[in-house]
Amino acid sequence: MLFTHRPRLRPGILLSAPVLRGPATVHLIRDPADGSAFEVGPKEYFLISRLDGARSLEEIGEEYARAFGRRLGEANWRQLLGLLGTRGLLVGAPPRQAPAAPPAPPRTGSLYRGSWRLVADADALTARMHRALRPLLRRRVLLPLLAACLVMEAVLAAQLDTLVRDTGWLFHQPVALLAVFTLLWLSTGGHELAHGVAARHHGGTVSEIGLRWRLPAVIMYCRVDDYRFLGSRLHQLAVGAAGAFANLLFLLPFALWWAALETGDPTRRVLSGLLLLGSVQALVNLLPLPPLDGYTMLSHVLGVSQYAPQSGRYLRLRLRDRQAAAGYPRRARVLYTAYGIGSSVLVLLIAAAAVTAALVLLTP
């Protein structure tokens, strides 16, 4: 009787694409109702993803035998269904009796380092913003805007000497410099909200919007919980790139204003600093280093979880025990070694560029 059963996953349960974590390939399963999540291997995912209520366990078992060369017994099925049932993931299973967690305080941490939740229902806020902006979130609108941003960056790159000279002048004008940094700080709010709107557009949810500080730095943040469960990697990339795109869009009207002014105009020199620093702010976010957006995008493109820490763990293991490190699959060895070398070189280049820029900008 067990093999004729046709169990079905509860609607809304999220299953991720395969993800490399350390030496293992895993899939993530998440229940949006209570936020719980756990990992399973490829074989378990093969079975769980086919629990659609249409196929019987016998039919799924035959597919499994063809794929993996092994038939599942009654004990295997009872163990799997028992796990899913106790977690409340199957239709007809008793709801999971999870202890009610106390509501998270709006503010955590200390005066010098912490966070403050600004919105009671971040998902509802981003849903309203998405409804208002939906007419603009179409390819025929976004592609021309993206082209305009690329043209703007090309023009600014051609005028880099002028921008650097004007930005150096700006660093000796305290009032104008404060105004520029205020505008750049406001653009970080648009950056984070763009992540939330893009996530809503592609079927994601936003759990929290707030401020995070590590004095003297105070920035806004937007937390997307089900990033790994979006429909495709292209959608994941779109959510990751939305923040930098919003930063560049923020600069577009200032770039038009800058282009209309005469060379040497004090306002144009202030705008030069805004455009240079704003472009750096946007483009640096695309670097593949944690916790920047580029790192998240690279992790999703390659299908790797905890890329930086897992890369460091593998390289340390390789130094201590090469035989144990050889137990990693070839793809993992290549990806972790490449990231360890590439990220180290990138950090050195960034440090050299930062020292050079500081000397140029701060030298009268």
Short description:
Keywords: Membrane, Transmembrane, Transmembrane helix. This is Peptidase M50. The chain is α+β, with helices and mostly antiparallel strands.
Question: Your description of this structure?
Answer:
Helices cover 58% and strands 12% of the residues. It is an alpha+beta fold and 364 residues long. The strands form 2 sheets. Strands 1, 2, 3 and 4 form a 4-stranded antiparallel sheet that branches. The mean pLDDT is 90. The longest helix has 33 residues, at 330-362. The protein has 3 domains: 2-86, no CATH class; 107-284, no CATH class; 304-364, no CATH class. It is built from 13 helices and 8 strands. This is Peptidase M50. Keywords: Membrane, Transmembrane, Transmembrane helix. The chain crosses the membrane at residues 141-158, 170-186, 237-258, 270-289, 338-362.
Share of residues in helices: 55-70%
Main sheet properties:
4 strands, antiparallel
- The fraction of residues assigned to DSSP E strands is 5-15%
Low-confidence stretches: none
The protein's oligomeric status is single chain
Radius of gyration: 25 Å
Number of helices: 13
The overall pLDDT, averaged over residues, is 90
